[in-house]
Amino acid sequence: MPSPTDDFLAEVLPRQTAAERAMHNGDAGPRGELWSHADPVSLFGAWLPIRTGWADVGAAFERVAAQFSDSLGYRFEVVAAGASGDLAYTIGFEHNTVSVNGTPTTYTLRATHVYRREDGGWKIVHRHGDRPPDEPGPEETSAEAHSRYAR
């Protein structure tokens, strides 16, 4: 018997992956459909100031989508997830190969999402995305690593 988290992931991840692929081809509509339009909602974007409230979050998605085109690949690598009652979360890495303002690029973001069950379905209520920090290589000493990050 699947766990509540397994059921949650089976329902959410295919739709969220499709929405992110659309977003990275310049279409914010599917992402907006996955989000709650009932406050509180919040966005801690990788390239934007913090946004709260659906009006500001939705407008941010439109602005970001306009910068993306020619997506060649999007993958969400789940690191951790949980679901209990009417709340759930995912933590993972988003791997993208896309053009940003016409320039092809490949990048990875750390992404955390919080979901709330509304009207029998899951809606995103929070996203925090940012670039992962550089990790010291195995050959670096702790002093070298510390000086590298103290900049």
Task: Kindly describe this structure.
There is one protein chain. The longest helix is centred in the first third of the chain and has 20 residues, at 4-23. The model is unreliable at 140-151 (pLDDT under 50). The protein has helices at residues 4-23, 29-34, 54-65, 142-149; strands at 42-44, 51-52, 68-84, 87-100, 103-118, 121-130. The protein is 30% helix and 41% strand. It has a six-stranded mixed sheet with strand order 2-1-6-5-4-3, with helices on one face. Strand 4 and strand 5 (103-118) form a beta hairpin. The chain starts with a helix and ends with a helix. The protein is an alpha+beta fold and 151 residues long. The relative contact order is 0.16.
Give a short account of the largest sheet: 6 strands, mixed
Please compute the radius of gyration using only Cα atoms: 17 Å
Distance between the termini: 50 Å
Based on helices, strands and strand pairing, what is the structural class? alpha+beta
What distinguishing features does this structure have?
151 residues; alpha+beta; 6-stranded mixed sheet; 4 helices; globular; disordered C terminus
